[in-house]
Every structure is written in structure tokens, then in C-alpha cells.
Design goal:
Layout lengths: L3 H17 L2 H15 L5 E5 L14 H6 L5 H15 L28 E2 L4 E2 L9 H17 L8 E2 L15 E2 L25 E5 L1 H4 L2 H4 L2 H16 L1 H6 L6 H6 L5 H13 L3 E3 L12 H12 L9 E3 L8 H28 L6
Antiparallel strand pairs: 1-6, 2-3, 4-5, 7-8
Helix pairs in contact: 1-13, 4-5, 8-11
């Protein structure tokens, strides 16, 4: 199991670098320009097949399969859906002439920290290839498209044609598929913007997820957990408002493919970042720092019956805030707690046994 201190420290280091290089700010600006120049959707509608496949199939949904792939595949697919709904109207099929690199490109939508050298503890050391951040973002996008296509013939979320001869991949000409994949027919099931009505199984996510940097700084497991909880909150709206939504272990693992450690850690980080809360009565948009809310949150957490799952409510209040600042603040506080705990354990270990 990865060491929590080192994992948190690495994440902080990466976020700090993205802050210094203005990577997240730059990606936010590019996405906001796209939103402003387009249809300005308040929400992005996703077909629920991305989160959970319909029917009794034992196959796992694309969402969880994307968590298992390294890189930015899930992030890129969601960004592509956001871009499409800024540009295309309901029912319009996928088309795009956006380049992979350059001003106004797909690469502009991606924030990364860059290449890190562990020996010198520096970013972007000199190399023979003379790589820069643009090169690295392009590689990330190409890897993401490979992962999206690699979900299988029927479940691929993107397809990339090949040049004549079949060797070179034409990444800039990729096509986006619907949330359930390419389909089993000879004709691909190209992406179309879904209609957000009761007869179409969709889940909506606020545009703020993209405009304020959350899509850039959350881990894939956190994005997936947030989407699952958001889906549950919209499928059971009254229950979500009154007592929260939850997943038992069997449903979490068999229906959504989420392991216990990944799920619990993601829920805790989402709570730290203000995107979910322990379920309790009160306005979902009220200030979580108010004493009443803090007490209600504590009781909801500590008053839980043994073996009962935590019940959660999704809160959109902090989506409108700067994601990078919130994550850096909360992870810094967590690092101090983890370091203090490690130091206390070390001191206790070095103490002589009682009575000596």
C-alpha cells in the first residue's frame, strides 16, 4: 500500500509546480474562452452508461475501466464532452477541426506539471530531444486517445484512423464515441449531444468543474467517485436531500468496480475539498464552516451505526471557487497532520518500555 505521506507530498509538489507555471490558470482560460464563445452551457449532460452500463451485464462501465489506465484518459474524454456541448446543439453529431497543438488546441485544455527528475529534484531538465511542456501535453493526449480506443471494439470511447499504409496514427482526426462506446455494429456510434429529459438517462455536471480547474487537479478515482455520487444523488433526489446516498460494499465493487480503499480515500478527499459532505439536514449550499454545520457533520460521521456505509450529499457550492487553491490548502494541512502523526509514532517507538 502506498505511503500516505509520500503520496500526499508528491501530489502537493505537482500542484505547486502547476501553480508556479500557471498551467491550471492557462487551461482554465482556454476552456472559459471556448465556453464564452460558444453556447455557454450551465451544465454538461452525460449519458449514465459512462458510469453504469444498463441491464444485467456483468461488464464494468467505461468510467471505472478508465480509472485503471494511467494518464489523462478520463479527463480528456470529459473535456471533449464539455467542448462538444459548448459548440454543438442537442442531437448534433460529433465533428471537430480543433488541432492537437497550438493556440486554441486540445493541448491548451490540459494542465500538467511536466517532467520531474528525482535525482536533481527539478522540473524539465535538459534532454537530447529538447522537450517542452507542449510536447509533453501532446504525448499525454495521444496516450489518452490510445486508452480510450483500447477499451475494446464495442466499448471504445474514441477511434483514431491510420494513415495510408496503416502504420502512422492520425491522432488529430480522432472521432468521439457515445458514453457507452463505439457499439457492436459496423457503423460506429458517434457521439451526439444528449437531450437532458427524463426519458434519456443522463446525469448533469456543472460547467464549473471545467471552468475553475477541478477537472485538472482531481485524481481520476476522485472524479469517478464524484460522478458516481452525483449520479446517485440525481437518481434518488429525495433520499439525497433527506438522508444522503451511499453504496454498500457489494454494489460498490460489483456494479461500479470501485475497491474499498480507493472509494474511501476519494470520498475523504472530496469531503476535504468541499465537494461532498456527510449527510445531514440543512441547506446544501450553506457555509460548511458554520458551527451548526460542523456539529451536524461530526454527528453524521461519528453517530453512524457499525458496519453501516457513510451517507453522502453532493454540494456544488465550492465548485465555483479556485480548485487549485483549495486543493493546495487542504493537502498542506493534511501533510502537516500526517507528518505529526509519523513523528509521534517514531517517538513512541524510541521510548523505553514502561517500568524500565
Amino acid at each position: 500500500m502506498p505511503d500516505a505521506r509520500e503520496t500526499n507530498r508528491t501530489r502537493l509538489r505537482r500542484l505547486t509546480q502547476m501553480d508556479k507555471s500557471q498551467a491550471v490558470a492557462g487551461a482554465n482560460n482556454a476552456l472559459r474562452d471556448t465556453w464564452t464563445a460558444g453556447l455557454k452551457p450551465d451544465d454538461v449532460a452525460l449519458r449514465v452508461g459512462l458510469v453504469q452500463l444498463p441491464g444485467d451485464t456483468a461488464e464494468r462501465a467505461p468510467l471505472v475501466r478508465l480509472i485503471q489506465s494511467r494518464g489523462i484518459a478520463l479527463r480528456f474524454y470529459l473535456l471533449a464532452l464539455f467542448e462538444a456541448q459548448c459548440r454543438l446543439r442537442v442531437g448534433d453529431p460529433w465533428t471537430s477541426d480543433r488541432p492537437l497543438t497550438g493556440l486554441g488546441s486540445w493541448s491548451d485544455f490540459i494542465a500538467i506539471d511536466g517532467a520531474y527528475d528525482t535525482e536533481s529534484k527539478t522540473y524539465m531538465p535538459d534532454t537530447k530531444q529538447g522537450r517542452d511542456s507542449s510536447d509533453l501535453r501532446l504525448r499525454q493526449i495521444q496516450s489518452a486517445l490510445q486508452a480510450l480506443e483500447g477499451l475494446g471494439p464495442a466499448r471504445a470511447l474514441a477511434t483514431v484512423p491510420r494513415a495510408k499504409g496503416g502504420r502512422r496514427r492520425l491522432y488529430a482526426e480522432f472521432s468521439l464515441m457515445k458514453e457507452t462506446g463505439r457499439g457492436g455494429h459496423q457503423t460506429p456510434d458517434f457521439y451526439t449531444v444528449p437531450r437532458n429529459v427524463w426519458s434519456v438517462a443522463t446525469v448533469t455536471i456543472p460547467a464549473d468543474l471545467f471552468l475553475n480547474g477541478w477537472i485538472q487537479v482531481l485524481h481520476p478515482s476522485e472524479v469517478a467517485t464524484w460522478l458516481i455520487l452525483r449520479s446517485l444523488s440525481q437518481w434518488a433526489r429525495n433520499q439525497h436531500t433527506e438522508s444522503g446516498v451511499y453504496l454498500y460494499g457489494k454494489a460498490r465493487q460489483e456494479e461500479f468496480g470501485m475497491q474499498r480503499n480507493s472509494w474511501e480515500d476519494a470520498c475523504q478527499r472530496l469531503r476535504d475539498f468541499g465537494l461532498i459532505r456527510h449527510a445531514h439536514s440543512g441547506d446544501l449550499d450553506s457555509d460548511p464552516d458554520k458551527l451548526g454545520n460542523q456539529m451536524a457533520d461530526w454527528w453524521a460521521r461519528e453517530g453512524r451505526e457499525r458496519y453501516e456505509p457513510y451517507r453522502w450529499q453532493v454540494t456544488d457550492r465550492d465548485l465555483a471557487k479556485d480548485a487549485l487553491k483549495i486543493c493546495m490548502r487542504e493537502l498542506t494541512l493534511r501533510q502537516k497532520t500526517l507528518d505529526a502523526g509519523a513523528e509521534a509514532r517514531a517517538r513512541k517507538k524510541d521510548e523505553p518500555p514502561a517500568g524500565q
